[in-house]
Amino acid sequence: NKYLGTWVGYDGNNVMYRITFQENGKEYMVTEDKLFYKSEKNYPSPHGTLFPSIDDSVKQTNNTYNINFILQKDSRTTTAREITPQNEKDDKEKDKYKNQLSYDEGRTIIRYIEKDNTLLINGIRYKKETSPDVTNDILKQMQNAKRIELETKF
Amino acid sequence: VIIDKITFDDSILT
User: Fold this and answer.
1) In terms of C-beta density within 10 A (0-12 exposed, 13-18 middle, 19 or more buried), how is residue A31 classed?
2) Which among A35, A41, A97, A102 has a CA at the least distance from the CA of A69?
3) Is the pLDDT of residue A86 over 90?
4) Are the beta carbons of A135 and A129 closer than 8 angstroms?
5) Cβ-based neighbours of A108, under 8 Å, separated by 6 or more
6) pLDDT of amino acid A129
7) Cα distance from B13 to chain A (closest Cα, Å)?
8) What is the DSSP letter of A84?
9) Which of A151, A148, A116, A140 is nearest to A16 (CA)?
C-alpha cells in the first residue's frame, strides 16, 4: 500500500509536518505531528532594555546572549479514506480518484503524486520518510531559518 | 546586544 508509513513536509519556514498512516479496516488512521522551534526564553530586546523582567534570556557578560531553541510538537489524530466514485463500474471514474484520499473527515484531499512518490496536502509536498535524513534535512533548514531570523533582529 | 551562541534541542524526537 503506497500510503502506509510516515511522510514529512515543510512549510519553508518554521513548521515541519510528519504524518503517519496506519491501516484501520477500510480506512486509515493518521497521526499528524506539527514540529516547530520555540526559543527557551524570550529574546533580549535588540537595543537592550532597562527592564530586566522583559528580558529573561540567558545573558552572558558584555551584553552577549545564548539562545536555545527547543523543538516542540503538537499532535493530533485523524482519518483518511479512499474516495469511491459514484459509478464504481466506470473505469474512467475509478481512474480519476485512484491517487486521491479524502482526509481529515472530508475536510481536505490528499493527492498522491506518482512521478516522484510524494503527497500533496494543502499546498505542501510530503516526502516518504525512507531514512532519518529526510527529517534531519528539514530540521537543518528550520535551524537556518531561525538563525536568519535572529540575524535580522539583532 | 550580541547573540553569542544559538543552540537547538531536538530531544523530543529521540
Assistant:
1) middle
2) A41
3) no
4) yes
5) A121, A122
6) 97
7) 8
8) P
9) A140
CB-based contacts of A68, cutoff 8 Å, min separation 6 = A39, A40, A41, A58, B6, B7, B8, B9
User: 3-state DSSP call for residue A12?
Assistant: coil
Nearest CA-CA partner of A78 in A98, A107, A100: A107
CA distance A24 to A5: 13
Mean pLDDT over all residues of chain A?
91
Cell of A119: 503527497
Provide, as residue numbers in chain B, all residues whose Cβ is less than 8 Å from the Cβ of A45. Answer: 1
* A46's grid cell: 535588540
Using the Cβ of A89 and the Cβ atoms of chain B, whether some distance falls under 8 Å is answered with no
Contact B14/A at CB under 8 A: no
Scanning the structure block, which residue is given the C-alpha cell 510538537? A73
Assigned C-alpha cell, A72: 516542540
ipTM at complex level = 0.96
Residue where the block lists cell 473527515: A105
* Contact B8/A at CB under 8 A: yes
